């Protein structure tokens, strides 16, 4: 697994305002959307392209276009939905799938409760969206589901990560073609599973249901 923490003043600025508890839901959604677009720019650095010939008004030249099969963008419900627009803004031709994950409170195992995506992901580049990489259980289970379907290149775009979640991913997804792109790896998880200093409950802050 590769970890890429995006170091950029605009990313740091937007993240600081997202963290601030005074930021209201409408501003939070707008900033999260902008931050995802900045992360998406880095996350798509290795998106597959093919060479094409075109004519400019002046001459003929060669350039690149995104190649087929199209990349697949998969937000994890519910909070990942708030990241979808920011991602597809840069990848408008991507296909979008959905993954609903639920955690069994007794076993603490994450499992899938809803999927809407192609059965066969062989040869596909997949971008998974989930704002918070906390314990890592949900993201690991999601990525295992994508790999089971044949995905051979998975990039997780997360706003914030905890070291505990990064460690779980490194352990569980060792040797798999997975990259995590994030704005920050914070200090730790607290006893309630929140990232510290974090930004609170991302879904509640996005949808105003705190
Ligand atoms: N999920 C959240 O929304 N926030 C956290 O801090 C951890 C998990």
UniProtKB/TrEMBL annotation:
Regulation: Allosterically activated by GTP.
InterPro entries xrefs: PRTase-like, PRTase_dom, Upp_B, UPRT, UPRTase/APRTase
Top-rank taxon, per record: Bacteria
Keyword Iron-sulfur in annotation: no
Phosphoribosyltransferase domain boundaries: 5-208
Sorted UniProt keywords: Allosteric enzyme, Glycosyltransferase, GTP-binding, Magnesium, Nucleotide-binding, Transferase
GO MF annotation, one: glycosyltransferase activity
Pathway entry: Pyrimidine metabolism; UMP biosynthesis via salvage pathway; UMP from uracil: step 1/1
Residue numbers binding uracil: 195, 200-202
UniProt-listed Gene3D superfamilies: 3.40.50.2020
Reaction catalysis annotation: UMP + diphosphate = 5-phospho-alpha-D-ribose 1-diphosphate + uracil
Cofactor note: Binds 1 Mg(2+) ion per subunit. The magnesium is bound as Mg-PRPP.
Binding site residues for 5-phospho-alpha-D-ribose 1-diphosphate: 78, 103, 130-138, 201
Top EC class, one word: transferase
Cofactor field: Mg(2+)
Pfam families from the UniProt entry: UPRTase (PF14681)
EC identifiers of the protein: 2.4.2.9
Similarity remark: Belongs to the UPRTase family.
UniProt cross-references to HAMAP family, sorted A to Z: Upp_B
Job of this protein: Catalyzes the conversion of uracil and 5-phospho-alpha-D-ribose 1-diphosphate (PRPP) to UMP and diphosphate.
Protein name, entry field: Uracil phosphoribosyltransferase
Organism: Streptomyces ambofaciens
Name of the coding gene: upp
């Amino acid at each position: 697994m590769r970890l890429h923490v995006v170091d950029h003043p605009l990313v740091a600025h937007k993240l600081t305002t997202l963290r601030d508890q005074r930021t209201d839901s409408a501003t939070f959604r707008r900033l999260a959307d902008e931050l995802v677009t900045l992360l998406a720019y880095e996350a798509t650095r290795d998106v597959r392209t093919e060479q094409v010939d075109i004519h400019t008004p002046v001459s003929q030249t060669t350039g690149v276009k995104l190649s087929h099969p199209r990349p697949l963008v998969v937000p994890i419900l519910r909070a990942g939905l708030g990241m979808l627009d920011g991602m597809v803004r840069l990848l408008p031709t991507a296909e979008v799938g959905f993954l609903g994950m639920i955690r069994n409170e007794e076993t603490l195992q994450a499992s899938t409760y809803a999927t809407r995506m192609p059965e066969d992901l062989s040869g596909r580049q997949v971008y998974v969206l989930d704002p918070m990489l906390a314990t890592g259980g949900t993201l690991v289970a999601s990525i295992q589901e994508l790999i089971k379907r044949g995905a051979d290149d998975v990039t997780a775009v997360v706003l914030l990560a905890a070291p505990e979640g990064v460690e779980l991913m490194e352990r569980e997804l060792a040797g798999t073609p997975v990259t995590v792109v994030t704005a920050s790896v914070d200090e730790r998880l607290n006893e309630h599973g929140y990232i510290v200093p974090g930004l609170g409950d991302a879904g509640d802050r996005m949808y105003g249901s705190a």
